[in-house]
Write a structure and sequence with these properties.
heterodimer; A: Rossmann fold; 7-stranded mixed beta sheet; 5-stranded parallel beta sheet; 12 helices; B: 344 residues; mainly alpha; ABC transporter involved in vitamin B12 uptake, BtuC; two-stranded antiparallel ribbon; globular
Chain lengths: 432, 344
């Protein structure tokens, strides 16, 4: 009996963890579907026989974190796929009038749930999947897709290793970790030269927990010597547990690097910005490498004047493409929030699949896979220097990040020049 | 009924539960098989936790440490040395038992008990997670993929998912774990564990070597947990420090036995049978609610709330778990000699 209080107490702790993870969801603004005519979500309990499929709608599955700490992105991505499907269906569908039906799934941010949901979707007749936002979940879902011979288009997930397993059914739209790190380093060099700045040393702060920060940092570090940048400090931190980084930044300040590099998620990026101001960090530039904060309009709202000058080399929609602007405008009207890059990629992924089905002349998973492999899609809304094409491994060969900067309260593309909206500036907000 | 008869009776019960389960993959569709795999997997892990947390009364809030050791050991042996995951599973079990015995010895030796012991185990698991995230050999925080092979291989412990092989593996592990618990339940060792749980000082006064048996409990529980970790790695084909050593692993492992009944033979299974499908059912419920609750359709998060609310109700109103509540009910209905000999 003497043990009762111990585990009663711990049970409360366990519940606290559960409740916290549940509460994180309402914090993310849930899109109200009342305003827009979101397509019906139909999830039949019985899997349809593939033979009776002629008149059946084509089922596409999407798996994203709709609850938990990443729900803000996940819900947008889910809605973006709905919007794409709605447009495709209104335009008459594919294959002479067959429409799409969306099967939505919540990964809850957990690899285990993501995997069982992927199995459920395949079992319910999804002929292609779009997922996942997180590398760990994607790794598991990719294995399911490959095992089930159902094509998977990854909208967002950065880890290189996902496509180094020899998978045939998995394709990725966004730049992988290597592309993020390598182009991040190259663009930094080009930017510095264009601005006439001496950039020789840099300190790197990165998410050392989820594999995301670490993989991008490693790629950057490999490329750095080639472009004449020496990393004088590499500091990993836990993006979801960190509350203060002034100690780390003070240490970095003493090393006097030219640039502060950051790879991580939204809240920790914001914390670094605030702490850098607190310690009056003496750098010439703050440059995010695939950073989840410094290219978000939300950052300008949260940080105000402090947000000025922050640079981020990250995936993005093509802000110089009117079609991209129209899509984002429509999304904002329909769902009441500015459309994030992750949602743009999810939207694009749906169109890539529709294109493949149209070219395949069939909605059989294997035929879709073969058509995806020969994708040559130029009409996209991403800032890539060429059409969307996949290599042997399934990587989008033209996927590139772009460099964005907060200028006068707006996030604008500044590099490379082909997609730039404005000239880059060399400044640090707390020194102005 | 003498001791041997009771033991046989318990094993007969286990067989009566397990044999019909063999038919599951032949009867239901593949999605339900994967649900059944997860249910048995959590029952297995809950059972492993229960040996230490339930029988010996050493509440662990950091079982992920053993789980992660198992997952990484079999995976790295497979990737670097082409060792079969079956052998890797045993190696992981051995390593986890050693680690558990060492860690347990240190904690017990310095009198860390109760809440503080639980926090100590939590800290150890977090420590391993951070070390793993900084260790180059296991690819830091990026994680490790197990290469997909075509077709089935018992040697590589990798199968087509739509078939029942994974199911049979976890069913086998589950039966093994349950057999260990039943043997323990009816043995001197188990009696020592329970004596320590009820009152350490009294047990010591009666001549039980408290430190030694507590360390045994940790090692046994650790070894079984590690085997579950190896199974997870082979089933999911990817692990990283958070999946292996994360807090949510520790929490998930102890939820089932708490809900089912701490320190009972069948508690972890009952808890897993309730919680695993419950999570799935609440998700399905929100996807296609009955017409009267149409407003719930597609509301992400509602499933987590329902799940959480049910958990709170169970823990508030039946703190001794479903098995304990069932016993109390049974005892009230048929007062008699049965009540007396049941443990806790």
């Amino acid at each position: 009996m003497s043990q009762r209080p111990v585990w009663a107490w711990l049970a409360v702790l366990v519940l606290a963890v559960l409740v916290l993870s549940a509460c994180a969801a309402p914090a993310a603004p849930q899109a109200e579907t009342g305003g827009g005519a979101a397509p019906e979500e139909v999830a039949p309990a019985e899997a349809p026989g593939p033979e009776e499929a002629q008149a059946e709608p084509i089922r596409i599955g999407g798996i994203h974190p709709l609850t938990g700490g990443l729900a803000a992105d996940g819900i947008q991505m889910d809605n973006a796929i709905r919007m794409a499907i709605q447009e495709l269906n209104e335009a008459g569908g594919v294959l002479g009038g067959r429409t799409f039906e969306y099967l939505s799934a919540d990964s809850t941010g957990s690899a285990e749930v993501g995997q069982t949901e992927a199995e459920r979707l395949v079992n319910q007749g999804a002929v292609a999947l779009i997922c996942c936002f997180q590398s760990s979940v994607t790794s598991n879902v990719a294995a399911i897709a490959e095992r089930s011979s159902v094509p998977l288009v990854i909208d967002v997930a950065v880890a290189d290793a996902i496509l180094q397993q020899g998978y045939r059914y998995v394709f990725r739209l966004q730049p992988n970790a290597t592309a993020m790190g390598v182009y991040g380093a190259q663009y930094l060099r080009e930017l510095a030269d264009a601005l006439g700045a001496t950039v020789q040393t840099a300190a790197y702060m990165y998410d050392g927990t989820t594999g995301y920060g670490d993989s991008v940092r490693a790629a950057f570090a490999r490329k750095a010597p080639e472009v004449g940048i020496e990393l004088v400090a590499e500091v990993g931190y836990d993006p979801f547990g960190v509350a203060d980084l002034t100690t780390e930044l003070t240490r970095i300040d003493q090393l006097a690097p030219d640039v502060l590099l950051v790879t991580g998620y939204y809240n920790d990026g914001l914390l670094i910005a605030r702490n850098a101001e607190d310690v009056d960090l003496d750098v010439k530039l703050v440059y995010g490498v695939a950073q989840g904060t410094y290219d978000q309009p939300q950052f300008v709202e949260d940080a105000g004047d402090l947000a000025e000058c922050f640079l981020d080399s990250n995936y993005h929609w093509d802000a110089s493409n009117p079609k991209a602007l129209a899509v984002r405008e429509k999304f904002q009207q329909q769902y009441g929030e500015p459309m994030r890059t992750s949602a743009v990629l999810a939207y694009q992924a749906m169109y890539i699949i529709a294109d493949a089905i149209q070219r395949a002349g069939s909605a059989e998973p294997t035929a879709i896979r073969d058509a995806l492999a020969t994708t040559d899609y130029a009409d996209h809304i991403l800032p890539y220097p060429g059409p969307i094409q996949f290599d042997e491994a399934g990587e989008n060969i033209n996927a590139r990040p772009v460099v964005m900067q907060v200028q006068d309260g707006r996030v604008v593309q500044v590099w490379p020049p082909a997609v730039a909206e404005a000239e880059p500036r060399m400044c640090v907000s707390w020194k102005q | 009924m003498n001791h041997r008869q009771r033991l046989l009776q318990d094993y007969a019960r286990l067989a009566a539960v397990a044999l019909p389960l063999l038919a599951v993959p032949f009867l239901v569709d593949p999605f339900l098989v994967s649900l059944a795999i997860l249910t048995l997997y959590w029952a297995y892990l809950g059972n492993a936790w229960n040996i230490m947390g339930g029988y010996a009364g050493q509440f662990s809030f950091g079982h992920a440490m053993f789980y992660g050791i198992g997952a990484y050991t079999s995976t790295m042996l497979l990737l670097r040395f082409q060792v079969s995951p079956w052998l890797g599973m045993l190696a992981g079990a051995g390593l986890a038992a050693l680690f558990g015995a060492g860690a347990g010895y240190l904690l017990f030796r310095f009198g860390v008990r109760g809440h503080f012991f639980a926090l100590g185990t939590f800290a150890l698991a977090e420590m391993l997670r951070l070390i793993a995230a900084e260790t180059e050999f296991i690819n830091r925080s990026i994680g490790v993929h197990i290469p997909l092979i075509r077709g089935d291989s018992w040697w590589r412990l990798q199968f087509e998912r739509t078939q029942g092989n994974y199911y049979f593996v976890i069913l086998g592990l589950f039966v093994l774990g349950m057999a260990v618990t039943i043997g323990l339940h009816r043995s001197h060792l188990g009696a020592y564990f329970q004596a320590i749980r009820e009152n350490e000082e009294a047990a010591a006064a009666l001549g039980v070597d408290v430190l030694r048996y507590k360390v045994y409990a940790v090692a046994l529980s650790a070894a079984l947990t590690a085997m579950g970790g190896s199974f997870f790695a082979q089933y999911f084909l990817f692990i990283d420090p958070t999946l292996a050593f994360g807090v949510s692993v520790s929490v998930q492992i102890l939820l089932r036995p708490i809900v089912g009944g701490v320190g009972t033979v069948w508690g972890p299974l009952v808890g897993a049978l309730l919680l695993t499908p419950l999570a799935e059912l609440t998700r399905a419920f929100v996807r296609t609610p009955p017409p009267s609750l149409e407003f719930l359709r597609g509301r992400s998060g509602v499933d987590v709330m329902i799940y959480g609310a049910l958990l709170i109700l169970v823990i508030l109103f039946i703190p001794d778990g479903l098995v304990g509540a069932g016993r109390r009910l049974w005892g009230r209905l048929s007062p008699g000699p049965r009540g007396g000999r049941r443990p806790s």
